[in-house]
Amino acid sequence: KAGVTQTPRYLIKTRGQQVTLSCSPISGHRSVSWYQQTPGQGLQFLFEYFSETQRNKGNFPGRFSGRQFSNSRSEMNVSTLELGDSALYLCASSATGQAVSGANVLTFGAGSRLTVL
Amino acid sequence: AQKVTQAQTEISVVEKEDVTLDCVYETRDTTYYLFWYKQPPSGELVFLIRRNSFDEQNEISGRYSWNFQKSTSSFNFTITASQVVDSAVYFCALSEGYNTDKLIFGTGTRLQVFP
What we know:
The complex is a heterodimer.
Chain A: E1 5-7, E2 10-13, E3 19-24, E4 31-38, E5 42-50, E6 53-57, E7 64-68, E8 74-78, E9 87-94, E10 107-108, E11 112-116
Parallel strand pairs in A: 2-11
Antiparallel strand pairs in A: 1-3, 3-8, 4-5, 4-9, 5-6, 7-8, 9-10, 9-11
Chain B: E1 3-5, E2 10-14, E3 19-21, E4 24-26, E5 32-39, E6 46-52, E7 59-61, E8 64-69, E9 74-79, E10 88-96, E11 104-105, E12 109-114
Parallel strand pairs in B: 2-12
Antiparallel strand pairs in B: 1-4, 3-9, 5-6, 5-10, 7-8, 8-9, 10-11, 10-12
């Protein structure tokens, strides 16, 4: 089956702009989570969604937001971009919350690499 | 607070050598899960193994093996007879409970296997 799809794969923005990243989970997965990866801070949890509800949120400013749609697809938005937002943004999906074996094993997408100039 | 420590930043070996990647974790919970992920140069994190806190059995999968010891809060990963294709960054991660996708990652260990 198809994996986790993230778009766009690469993008360049300037400070002050906003960006929206998209994630399509594995078919049947209802949980989607987002992570930010930078050389300095490593992999950090942003937020997770299940059935259109935010289940958990990491320690990021309010400029970072997300949502999940009824088809489980998710988007995250970063407003008023700063240089420090340059990172690889990884989306993952799982069957967490669903009564299936192998739940809470995350399958990651290839990421969206954001460069802020 | 939860924490995962991977003290080895980078390891270089020659093909066919065995290599062990260390992972030490901290958590106050009794129910938790430990994971190992591999990140090749393409960037996509690839799941390798999941272990829950109640299962201390070691596991072997081909050339890969994992040693989970609650007494030392460690979950080490050994690659036997390493190959060039094993070159990647390996992450150890911790989650609390079963109903969350929030993982606390270690800083990763970059493994370079030379021919």
